[in-house]
Amino acid sequence: MRALVISGGGSKGAFAGGVAQYLIQDLGRKYDLFIGTSTGSLLVSHLALSKIEEIKTFYTSVNQSSIFKSCPFTIKKKRGYTSISIHHMNVLRNLLKGNKSFGDSTNLRDLIGSAISESYFKELQSGDTDVVVTVTNLSANEVEYKSIKECLYEDFLDWIWISCNYPPFMSLVRKNYCDYVDGGLGSMVPIEEAINRGATELDVIILETEINYLNRMPTKNPFSLITNMVDFMMNRIEHQNIRIGKFKAMEHNVAINLFYTPTVLTTNSLVFDKEKMTQWWAKGYKFAKKKNISNPL
Known about the structure:
The chain contains eleven helices and ten strands. Strands 1, 2, 5, 6, 7, 8, 9 and 10 form an eight-stranded mixed β-sheet that branches. Strands 3-4 form a two-stranded antiparallel ribbon. A hairpin with a 2-residue loop joins strand 3 and strand 4. The two termini are 16 Å apart.
């Protein structure tokens, strides 16, 4: 049983799309299981249907307004450097409305609904391939994995959206009497879950470099402090997921191929720049091709 696992990583998901395009389109890889976290959950449905060009268009055309109904930060570009600061009015307005997070990402939920039609859902649900997304249940203090085989259409779209909701900047979703957020808060790279579901061969796309090349800029305000803290925690979760996944793979004699990003793509994956994401998609495709030529899978 072969599985494709895609980690979280916000806008860096474009790189994962390029890697997956090469694996599926050029190498002709057939997967029995697609499992994604956060941005990975946005990719898996289209990849399972081999709708490569559709998901590529999706990833290379979004911007901040495509994701946020109310964006909690402002983005300024100066001399090639992107600076991010809190959008005080949007955050205050959001809190006054009674929302429990700094931003409102309901535009992303609408976008997911337009990208994944009910006919696509039914085709996947009736097929042999399983599609699974990762969410974090804060109320139950658990990570949950939602299979398309066990969901109704609108519920599955909700789970994809929830899987992407990076706390505390995107929407906190109340569903089934529980509070849910980004799956990456508990399982950034769900290798272990893929093995638990019977995978014996894994291609894993990890949207970070294998070795840490990053020193963050000094913290300038409470907003950047929170951002750096959440990024640090998710980075540690990711490394833990990979270590556990590798151990599990060795224990069960599972073949595993890891695709890390060769360079640091961005220091803030909540910035959605169409031009950069187009470049990252092409970069992912070229990287996977080069990796296969130098080290055939």
